[in-house]
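Human: I would love a firmer grasp of how sequence relates to backbone shape in proteins. Could you go through the record with me and say what the backbone is doing? Here is the record:
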Amino acid sequence: MASSGRGRRELDTPTKNRIIGYWRATGNAAEAGRKENVKPRVAQYVVQHYKERGTTANKPRTGRPSKLTEYDKREIVRVARKNRRMPLAEITNNIATKVSVATVRRVLAARGYHRRVAKRVPFINHKHKQLRYAWGRMYRKWKRRRWRHVIFSDECYICLGDKRGRIFITRRTDELLLEECLVPTFKQSPIHIMVWGCIAEGRKGPLIVVDYPGGKGGGLNSEVYQQQILEGPLLSFYNEIREERHFAYFQQDGAPSHTSKSTTNWLQKNKIKLAYHPPNSPDLTPIEPVWSKLKSIIRRQQRTPTTVEELKAAALAAWEEIPLDLINKHISRMPDRVAAVLAARGGHTGF
């Protein structure tokens, strides 16, 4: 038995459980107390407590008074919200009352805030948001069957050993896409290889490893884009989809080689109908998660490619492994993407 207070004995849980067991067997609380060398009145109190609460456990106690006032707790939340990237240890130095990091963590957790890895998203400015919102309004009436006629295309840089550091921020569960909880990403160079691919519902187009000299002026210019991608692989696939489904649209991003005068003339000459895609918006195209799948397949290979040629071969082999079910799943959610960007007023979506 444990002691509590001045001269008072507090029964331990096993003793109280034995009293309850004897009482339930005989119906005599006083006799149960005498069996455990406990005063009859105390045993009767244990039984009464059990009848009322269904347990022999003690009621929760207040414990030591909190060192923080409600104002202190609100101050912790204010500091964390003002600078989402501030470590918890630094928050303790920015409040009046000195407390431990564990206390700060408990205060924030009680209000739904936790340290999380910030979601990386493309950088979008006010103009980008306007264009994204306009895109949503343009396609808000498109049903799933209409998206079946769209060929989605994109380029992808594949670079081995790209290890990005994680940035922790403080947020609630519903603040995933809040501006100050995001980490913008920017286009990076140099790259190991560039590939171009396209998809449509139920179909996987060709994957092309782009061959370009690199360096200043030697990237994916209009000439390379037209000769290596549009004039062969894209035109053939576009005609197949158009013949199979009566009409087709081709979606590409706003890269300079895609929107140049010569490329625009080529598309018009070959009667390629375009579907608009806003800038810096990989979340609004279903091919982006396909690229993620492609890279994951390459990363899990037992033997990591060590040369450019091996990397090219690995990319082509990984493209063949991508299932059509994955492509169809993401294309079927295009109406959800439209709804999400409209709800965000052109801001970031969860895709």
Summary: The CA atoms of residues 160 and 305 lie 8 Å apart.
